[in-house]
Design a protein that fits this description.
The protein is mainly alpha-helical. Helix content is 92%, strand content 0%. It has helices at 2-15, 17-35.
């Protein structure tokens, strides 16, 4: 099961690599709010 999830994660990462990089800053802000 975990191997299938890992493969899906890799496929998603390859397809939306740019979106992830773009959202990384947004996620950082959200995490900062929760940590604050």
């Amino acid at each position: 099961m975990s191997q299938e999830v890992l493969e899906i994660s890799v496929m998603v990462d390859e397809q939306f690599d740019v979106n992830f990089n773009l959202a990384d800053g947004i996620l950082g802000v959200i995490l900062s709010i929760f940590e604050g």
